[in-house]
Specification:
Helices cover 0% and strands 44% of the residues. It is built from no helices and ten strands. Residues 28-119 form the DUF427 domain.
């Protein structure tokens, strides 16, 4: 069944908006300074022009002991409501550095239980296979 034939409540349909999610073939490491926050061989790449592509890393590959959840949230009409985490050791620079769509719209289930990081708050190293 076409997921867009019966969109999830709240999902905004826009034929000009193309969002793709594909597996990344390689290793992705996220660091705050010298501290590794995440390391994965199972990351996904979400492309949503005009924004830069973002790596979404499975929760199992993220060290949540280095993060603290925040009250900050945002809403995307295509993905749903995002929750945020700060990197404890990074102080103000790490505030709301990671986001995730814990209950994304049905059209974006590929990113459920995955987190993404702001590239201006962490170092993201991607090494293709």
């Amino acid at each position: 069944m076409d997921k867009l034939a019966n969109p999830a409540p709240g999902y905004q349909r826009n034929p000009d908006k193309v969002i793709t999610v594909e597996p990344y073939r390689g290793n992705v490491t996220v660091r705050a300074g010298d501290t590794v926050i995440a390391r994965s061989t199972r990351a996904k790449v979400l492309s949503e022009p005009p924004y830069p592509a973002a790596f979404y890393i499975p929760f199992d590959d993220i060290d949540f002991s280095k993060l603290v959840s925040t009250e900050h949230s945002t809403h995307c009409p295509y993905k749903g409501d995002a929750s945020y985490w700060s990197i404890q050791a990074a102080g103000e620079a790490g505030k709301n550095a990671m986001w995730a769509y814990e209950q994304p719209f049905d059209e974006m289930t590929e990113i459920r239980n995955h987190g993404a990081f702001y590239a201006n708050k962490v170092t993201v190293e991607a090494t293709p296979d």
